[in-house]
Amino acid sequence: MLYYFKSIYSACVIISVILMPLSFGEMYTSLLNVKQAINVERQLIDHLETYIEHESERLEDIKRFYAKVSDLHSEVYSGPSAAMANPLVAFTLIKRLQSEWLNLIYSDEAQENTQAFRSGYKEVEKEGSLPKLEDLQGAAKGLMRLQDVYALQVGGLVRGHFQRITDGNPIDIYSPTVSVPLSGDDCFLVGKVAYELEDYYHSVQWLEESVRLFRGAGGEWSPENEGTLEDALDHLAFSHFKTGNISYALSLSQELLNHDPMNGRVLKNVQKYERLLVDSPPLLSTDTGLKRPNTTYLRTRNTYERLCRTQGTQPTHYENPRLFCDYFNNDSPGLLLQPIRREVLSLQPYVVLYHSFITDSEAESIRDLAQTGLRRSVVASGEEQVTAEYRISKSAWLKETAHPIIGRLDQRITLLTGLNVQPPYAEYLQVVNYGIGGHYEPHFDHATSASSPLFKLNTGNRVATFMIYLSSVDAGGSTAFIHANFSVPVLENAALFWWNLHRNGQGDGDTLHAGCPVLVGDKWVANKWIHEYGQEFQRRCSPNPEE
């Protein structure tokens, strides 16, 4: 092949996956875990409420003391000097100055309240249910991935809108029913993640929004914020310098000096930028617009992203008169009275969509069964299995013994395909839940290397894939077939089937496919990978004799 593809396929020798240890710090890779974080924050809200109550009581006591002392100064001490001749008045003054003020100033109550609040937080932290730094970084990368793949405007995202510029105008590609605007600190953290990756294409866009929002807030700092206007200006100035926009880097650095005039590092940067502008003055015609960096590992990026953006609408592809829909029973007695609606999406590769393959209750049961077993999805790297940025999801493996519904699904797949789906001739059912911007970049399901762990099953390569959509999504998440030039939107309860190998056992390069990033929604799928051995003379699903 002329293209270089990562040898990535949905990884998993059955035994090694089942024994994979529990993974923490990967909340962002599964929307189920993100949803569970809502309950975690509710616990913290309860602790905060208790803290506020105790602090309010403490401040009420302080206010009462303040009122008492103020009243004495306005009503007693400002009166005739005879008041101080009263030994009771004199005693209470001396007592307050020697005792009460000290008790107030050195009271441990505030510290005790703070300590109780921190202890509550640590209890939640011990449970391992709080996101880690990796989760924050992963969520930020997810937003940038969505920005790129769906050509979204950062300014729109900041306002809670999913917009793309079309003919110079922002157009909503999806209007969420629930959304929230992002703060200056939100944008700063996304920009900082990009900055630390030396990804200045993204850091400039997000830090620009951060600076704009911090300026609009008058530069006021909030205790929950990590960043400030000065931080955003600092990072943005250097990002512009790295993208070649030295004039703007100088302007931002000078603005930063207005806030922090004694910052020696920024002073040196200003001098450096001024020298560079003198030595190499910018040309008036110089294009200072940001350009997205090229990729070296994903040669099919443009096709992949285009197919994701069309979200299944490829009229030219579907105008092929050889494509059809019908009610299909595969000449199986079990389907004669209840055939399944089949939609042939492609002949090369042969891809079929089976509508209403499962019921809502079956899909819900499978999702529930998988929840406790979800682990970070892995890909193959030689003979090893590793996590990777190009696959963001969690997956679990369900045996037939997990629940009778798994056996019924296997039987239904066999009725439709005529294939033996019992282990070891097929793998256990893999259930996948995608995370924030969850995706799986272009890959093959079949092994492309003789060293693949798939062959340890001694049942050959993955001859076919049967993928079931266990949920719907609001936007994104399509399955894109790169070389075949079409994508399939997520259709709840439907199933996709395709052959991964030619009849001669060679891998079909046209099955290169991807799971597009989920823009909005909670995507669940189930994969059944069927192997070569045990399928002899069973290839009846394809009407294409050349296949």
Short description:
This is Prolyl 4-hydroxylase subunit alpha-3. The chain has 547 residues and is of the alpha+beta class.
Rg estimate, integer Å: 31 Å
What is the terminal-to-terminal distance? 19 Å
Q: What is the domain tally?
A: 3
Counted beta strands? 19
Question: What is the helix tally?
Answer: 16
CATH architecture of the largest domain: Sandwich
Task: Trace the largest sheet across and list its strands.
Answer: 3-4-5-16-12-19-10-9-6
The overall pLDDT average reads: 89
Query: Structural class given helices, strands, pairing?
Result: alpha+beta
CATH fold descriptor of the largest domain: Jelly Rolls
Strand content: 15-25%
Assign the CATH class of the largest domain.
Answer: Mainly Beta
CATH superfamily of the largest domain: q2cbj1_9rhob like domain
- What is the overall silhouette? elongated
User: How would you characterize the largest beta sheet?
Assistant: 9 strands, antiparallel
Subunit structure: Heterotetramer of two alpha-3 chains and two beta chains (the beta chain is the multi-functional PDI).
Subcellular location: Endoplasmic reticulum lumen
Cofactor: Fe(2+); L-ascorbate
Family: Belongs to the P4HA family.
Structural description of this entry:
- There is one protein chain.
- With about 550 residues, the protein is an alpha+beta fold.
- It has 3 domains: about 100 residues; about 150 residues, Serine Threonine Protein Phosphatase 5, Tetratricopeptide repeat; about 230 residues, q2cbj1_9rhob like domain (Jelly Rolls, Sandwich), CATH 2.60.120.
- The protein is built from 16 helices and 19 strands.
- It has a 9-stranded antiparallel β-sheet. The chain has a 4-stranded antiparallel β-sheet with strand order 11-17-14-15, covered by helices on one side.
- Helix 8 runs parallel beside helix 10.
- It is elongated, with a radius of gyration of 31 Å.
- The chain starts with 13 loop residues before the first helix and ends in a 16-residue tail after the last strand.
